[in-house]
Amino acid sequence: MDQQVKGKGLYIDWILIITITLLALFGLVMVYSASFVFAYEMRGGDYTYFFNKQLQWLFISSGFLFFFIFFPYRHFRWLSKFIVLACFIGLALVFLPTDFPFISGVEVMGARRWVNFLGFQVQPSEFVKLGAIIYLAYVYSRKQPYINKFFSGVLPPLIVVAAFFVIIMLQPDLGTATSIVLVAGLIAYCSGAKKITPHFIRKLSCLGSMALCHFC
Q: pTM for the full model?
């Protein structure tokens, strides 16, 4: 079901698009089903409050989806460094005071994972997930001649991932931090570092256990 857009050389995977659309619609139904009673009680009778918030972000994300469908992905090569920088800035913003003007951190039950920007709340660590994938894919594609050399091939990009892990654990957000580390290990393995990845995973498990003991 792949279709090429004439004159553009662009292939659109309609199976993927339809799958994403169905998942998004299913998510809307689940949000409404799980929250309408709570919204009615807490929002003065507005039982569609959380549904409308989810629908709002669905429209925004759909705009980004169609933009990046036509965005030349090769530009991510030179954008990757700026993406990593933006990820670190976003993670740092969650620690801003809650009364900071225009942009401030948001603290919920002792966790600081959100940023309030002009009335909109965003979670920077969610963007870090995508940014880490783009960065690792670019760096490991350039390190193919020596991808099996741990210190020169595999380790340097993972230092960036480790920095992401530490900052996100300071929020704290164990689920997001763990998912980023697991995806990083998977990308390293798929990039060709098959011989040393099991050894790396054993070390990573030890470091992860030490981190959990420290933060939890």
A: 0.76
